[in-house]
Specification:
By secondary structure, this protein is α/β, with parallel strands linked by helices. It has two domains: 193 residues, HAD superfamily/HAD-like (Rossmann fold), CATH 3.40.50.1000; 72 residues, Gyrase A, domain 2. It has nine helices and 15 strands. The protein has a five-stranded parallel beta sheet with strand order 5-1-13-14-15, with helices on both faces. Strands 9-10-12-11 form a four-stranded antiparallel beta sheet. Helix 1 packs parallel to helix 9. The longest helix has 24 residues. It is globular, with a radius of gyration of 19 Å. The relative contact order is 0.19.
């Protein structure tokens, strides 16, 4: 008798892990050798995010042999602009775990549970006020935008060249005392409540689906909890985690940067899930 095939859960961050803006592609080869790209996001009638065509092909196969979960800090609206190749994901995690989408619709019970966990942190209004005041005290016109994401956390879009050197570190110290986490990702500085995590939402999806093992990928501090909770994970050679040398024993720290890292992540996820499926399918009862 053939054993039942285990279905792995694949949880991947999107921006600068799986998909890349034109400015984040990180292409270093001559133009004639550059990989063919697939646009996966259009915003205001302009192409915004890409992955290689090879990564797109591999992701299509990966999504059919796993529970594939896009796991992002994007708001629901921002996530819904992304058109990944392959079958539409049944589950997605948005707002850094604040929303769990099921067939594209937010799960209200999950969101209520998240709200209860945030009660022990400083309120969003206090953090926003501090961000505004601290940014105003900086030198130079370096804050381009201030935003609130789904009424859960705040972020700034900044000019990195003008960002005061110690500003993020000082903000992180202030926020940490109030139960919040600070993350610098490209041109964005996020302030996120500590209990608002991707790993908690992914664990809930694993519980509902029974999918195992869990594989994960991400590039920023806000992905660290997701990577640590996975059975195996990948981080690219760029981004906040790479810049600080962050890693763990079960994490593959890639040398590749930019869209090449995204392709390798999908390739290796595809390889491990395919191999695991073959082993389970051929394993018989004693």
């Amino acid at each position: 008798m053939t054993a039942a095939v285990a279905t792995p859960l694949i949880a991947s961050d999107l921006d600068r892990t799986l998909i890349y803006s034109a400015g984040a592609l990180g292409l270093t080869v001559p133009d004639a050798e550059a990989p063919r790209l697939l646009c996966v996001e259009v915003y205001e009638r302009r192409p915004l995010s890409y992955m290689t065509e090879t990564a797109a092909r591999l992701l299509t196969g990966l999504a059919r042999q796993s529970v594939f979960v896009p796991t992002t800090t994007r708001t629901r609206e921002q996530y819904q602009r992304v058109r990944l190749p392959g079958p539409p994901p049944r589950y997605a995690v948005c707002a850094n775990g604040g929303h769990l989408l099921v067939d594209g619709r937010p799960d209200p019970d999950w969101h209520a549970r998240v709200r209860r966990r945030l009660a022990g942190c400083a309120p969003l209004a206090e953090v926003r006020e501090h961000l505004h005041r601290a940014a105003g005290a900086g030198t130079g016109d370096w804050v381009l935008k201030e935003r609130v994401a789904d009424d859960l956390f705040a972020y700034l879009v900044v000019d990195r060249d003008r960002l005061p050197g110690a500003w993020v570190k000082e903000l992180a110290a202030w926020a940490g005392e109030r139960g919040w986490t600070v993350s610098l990702q490209g041109r964005k500085i996020y302030a996120v409540p500590g209990p608002l995590t991707k790993s908690a939402a992914v664990a809930e999806i694993a519980r509902r689906t029974g999918a195992t093992p869990t594989y994960a990928a991400g590039d920023s501090l806000l992905d660290a909890d997701l990577l640590l909770a996975a059975d195996h994970g990948w981080r690219p050679g760029h981004g906040e985690l790479a810049d600080t040398g962050w890693s763990a024993g079960h994490i593959t720290a890639l040398a590749e940067r930019g869209v090449a890292a995204g392709e390798r992540i999908v390739r290796e996820m595809h390889q491990v899930t395919t191999a695991a499926g073959r082993q389970e399918a051929t394993r018989g009862d004693p």
